[in-house]
Write a sequence for this structure.
C-alpha cells in the first residue's frame, strides 16, 4: 500500500455509471489522487470508461479490481443493493473504501461493513458529500454559534421526476425508491446541521406497483426540541431548498440544498445577509478521505461510523413505517 505523504493514493473505480464518472472527474482535480483502474460487470463497459478517462487498467469484474495490487482505495458507485458485497470484497482484499450513499440496504449490512473495516484495519467512509460542502459546513457553524437562536425547525425536500420504469430508482431488487436515493438528504441534513439524530420519526409513503417508495413525507423530533420535516419523491420536481428556523432568525438555503453554494441569513432586526460559497462538489469528500488515510485513520471524523449507522437505522425505521421491504430482506 502506498501510504506516505508524498506518494499519490491510487484509486480504483467500482462501476461505470453516472456518479462514477463525476467522482473520476473530481479525483482528477486533486493533486495527490490517481485513478489507476476501473472495474465493471463487463469488459466492454470497463474499456469504454477507461478510454474516456484515460485510466490504465480496465477490469471485467469487481473481483479483478479488488485483486489489482496497484489499487489502494476503491470507490463503490453501484446501486444500493450491491454496496455491502462490493465493500466487503474490497476491504477483505486490503483496500480502503469510500462507498456511495445510501451506504447499504439496511443497518445490519452497514454494521457488517464497519466491522469488516475494523477487522481489516482499512479506511471506510460513506460518501455523504453534503457534509463537506463549504456552504453547508458554514451553515452548521452559524447554527452552532447561535446566530439564529434556538433551532425550532428544519425543512428540506428532494423530489425529482424519475419516471424510467427500468432504471435502478424503481427496481426493488436494486434497493430503489425515493428514500435511499434522494430522501436520505432531507432526512439527514438536519442531523448534520444540528449535530444530533432524532429520537422519533413519523413518515407516510406512497409505493409504486413494484413495491418501492415513490413519495415519502415525514417529520422527525430531535433531542434539542427541534422538529424537521422532509419530503422526497420520484414523481415530481420540488423546490429543492431547505429552511432552518430559529428563535431569533432563519437561514434559507438555496437549491440544491445538498450541495448549495449560497444561502441567506435573516436575523431579527437586521438586514438579510446573502452568502455565496462555491464548492468543488465531490472533491471535498475525496480529499478528506485521503487526508484521514494519510494520517493513519480508518474512519472519518465528519461522516463517522456512528453517523452512518444512525442514518441507516433512520432509513430502516422510515421504510418500515411506509412498508418498503426489499426482496433480499424477506
Ligand atoms: N453523491 C451523489 O451526488 C450521487 C448522485 C447520484 C447517485 N449517487 C449514488 O451512487 C450510486 C450509484 O448511482 P448512479 O446514479 O451512478 O447509478 P447508475 O448510473 O445507474 O450506475 C450504477 C452502476 O452500477 C453498476 N452496477 C453494479 N451492479 C449493478 C446491478 N446489479 N444493476 C445495475 N448496475 C449495476 C453498473 O456499472 P457496470 O455496468 O460497470 O457494472 C452501473 O452503471 C447509488 O448509491 C446512488 O445513490 C450519489
Amino acid at each position: 500500500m502506498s501510504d506516505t505523504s508524498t506518494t499519490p493514493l491510487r484509486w480504483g473505480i467500482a462501476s461505470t455509471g453516472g456518479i462514477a464518472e463525476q467522482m473520476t472527474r473530481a479525483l482528477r482535480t486533486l493533486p495527490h489522487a490517481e485513478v489507476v483502474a476501473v472495474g465493471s460487470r463487463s469488459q466492454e463497459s470497463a474499456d469504454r470508461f477507461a478510454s474516456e478517462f484515460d485510466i490504465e487498467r480496465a477490469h471485467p469484474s469487481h473481483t479483478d479490481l479488488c485483486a489489482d495490487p496497484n489499487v489502494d482505495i476503491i470507490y463503490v458507485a453501484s446501486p444500493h443493493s450491491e454496496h455491502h458485497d462490493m465493500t466487503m470484497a474490497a476491504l477483505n482484499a486490503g483496500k480502503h473504501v469510500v462507498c456511495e450513499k445510501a451506504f447499504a440496504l439496511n443497518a445490519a449490512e452497514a454494521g457488517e461493513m464497519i466491522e469488516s473495516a475494523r477487522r481489516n484495519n482499512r479506511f471506510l467512509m460513506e460518501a455523504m458529500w453534503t457534509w463537506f460542502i463549504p456552504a453547508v459546513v458554514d451553515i452548521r457553524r452559524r447554527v452552532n454559534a447561535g446566530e439564529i437562536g434556538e433551532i425550532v425547525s428544519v425543512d428540506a425536500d428532494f423530489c425529482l421526476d424519475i419516471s424510467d420504469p427500468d432504471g435502478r430508482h424503481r427496481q426493488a431488487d436494486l434497493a430503489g425508491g425515493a428514500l435511499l436515493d434522494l430522501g436520505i438528504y432531507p432526512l439527514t441534513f438536519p442531523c448534520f446541521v444540528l449535530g444530533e439524530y432524532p429520537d422519533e420519526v413519523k413518515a407516510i409513503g406512497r409505493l409504486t406497483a413494484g413495491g418501492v417508495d415513490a413519495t415519502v413525507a415525514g417529520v422527525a423530533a430531535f433531542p434539542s426540541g427541534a422538529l424537521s420535516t422532509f419530503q422526497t419523491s420520484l414523481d415530481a420536481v420540488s423546490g429543492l431548498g431547505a429552511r432552518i428556523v430559529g428563535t431569533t432568525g432563519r437561514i434559507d438555503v438555496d437549491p440544491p440544498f445538498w450541495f448549495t453554494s449560497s444561502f441567506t441569513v435573516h436575523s431579527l432586526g437586521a438586514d438579510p445577509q446573502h452568502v455565496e460559497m462555491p464548492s468543488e462538489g465531490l472533491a471535498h469528500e475525496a480529499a478528506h478521505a485521503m487526508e484521514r488515510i494519510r494520517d493513519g485513520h480508518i474512519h472519518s471524523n465528519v461522516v463517522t461510523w456512528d453517523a452512518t449507522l444512525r442514518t441507516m437505522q433512520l432509513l430502516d425505521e422510515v421504510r418500515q413505517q411506509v412498508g418498503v421491504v426489499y426482496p433480499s430482506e424477506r
